[in-house]
Design goal:
Length: 112
């Protein structure tokens, strides 16, 4: 896509097309966390490549709108890449709703 991030949908190499339905579940993770991490997570969410991804014109346009309408504008995104936070116009934390969380936010859980 425009920011350099591999697509999640549509292309034959997209995450959804390759492995999300099989590997993108808590159950699959619980079967073998190390295998899940090496087979699924690193393949699609390689933190070593994150520095290559840059906000694109869409991120910049949304940042301008948020700045112009600071009191009312909100951005709701499914993206986990954090690029909205890194646009030159920076979207403020209270204007950004990342419904799937963001890359780098991890949560430990128990069986309880």
């Amino acid at each position: 896509v425009a920011s350099g991030i591999p697509p999640f949908r549509g292309a034959s190499d997209a995450v959804w097309e390759q492995s999300l339905h099989e590997w993108g579940t808590r159950e699959k993770f619980e079967e073998n966390p190390l295998l899940w991490y090496n087979t699924f997570w690193l393949k699609h969410f390689d933190e070593g490549k994150a520095h290559l991804y840059k906000p694109n014109a869409g991120h910049e346009a949304l940042a301008k709108i948020c700045k112009a309408y600071n009191a009312t504008a909100k951005v709701i995104t499914q993206n986990i890449d954090g690029l909205h936070r890194h646009s030159t116009g920076k979207i403020e934390d209270d204007q950004l709703i990342e419904i799937h969380g963001f890359h780098g936010a991890f949560k430990c859980y128990t069986d309880d």
